[in-house]
Amino acid sequence: MNTPKVIACGALWTGVAAVFSLIILAGCSALPAAPERPVLYDFGPGLQDPAPAQPQAALPPLALATVDSAGLPEGSTAVHYRLAYADAQQLRPYQAARWSQPPIQLVRQSLQARLGQRRTIIGVAGALAGARANGQPPAVLRVELEEFSQVFASAQHSAGLVRLRATLTQPSALGENLLAQRLFIVRQPAARPDAQGGAQALAQAAEQVAREVADWLELVGR
Length: 222
What we know:
- With 222 residues, the protein is an alpha/beta fold.
- Helices cover 35% and strands 33% of the residues.
- The chain has helices at 3-30, 103-115, 124-134, 195-219, and strands spanning 39-41, 62-64, 68-69, 78-83, 87-99, 121-122, 139-152, 158-172, 175-189.
- Strands 1, 2, 3, 4, 5, 6, 7, 8 and 9 form a nine-stranded mixed β-sheet that branches.
- Helix 2 (103-115) packs across helix 4 (195-219).
- The protein is elongated.
C-alpha cells in the first residue's frame, strides 16, 4: 500500500537533484574566463649574415648612448599601430600583443649588434672619462626614436614605420662637439594586417635602420 508514496518521493528527490545540478552548471558558466596572456614579440634571433669572404678592417671604437624616445609612451611594451586612412594622429595599442622589452631597448640592441661587427662599442660614461683623461675619446652616437609603429594605409595594407634621428658628437674636455646628424626613415611592408605582421615588419625595419646607420658612420669617417 505504501509503494506509490516511495516512488513519488524518489521521483521528487531526483527532480530536486536535477534542478540543483542545473543551477550549479549555470553558476559555473557565469564565472569569468581567465584572461589570455598577450603574445610576446622581439626582433628574432639576431644577425644571421654570412661572414665576408675577405676580412674587413676594424673601425674606430664608438660610444653608443641610451636610445631616447620622443614619440612613444615611456616604458611601454605595447605593439602600436596607426590607421592612416581614418585617424593617423591616434597611436593605438594592440590589446593582445606586447614587445618583450620597450622598443627603445630592442632598437639599441639591434644597433649595438650591427655596429659591433667591426668596432668596439662602449658606454658614454667611458668615453667622457677618456676625454678628461687623455683627450682622445671615441665619438658618441646618440639616437632618438621618433616613430615605431605599424601604419595602415587601408584595412588590409600596412607597413612597419621606423623613424630615427642619429646625432654624432666628439667629446672633449670642454664638452661635446657636433660632428654630424641625420634622420633615418624606413618603411617595411607587413605580410599580414595584424599584430604578428606588424611586429615582423617593425623588426625588419629596425634592422634596416641599423644597417643604414652603420653605413652613414663610415661615410662621415667614423
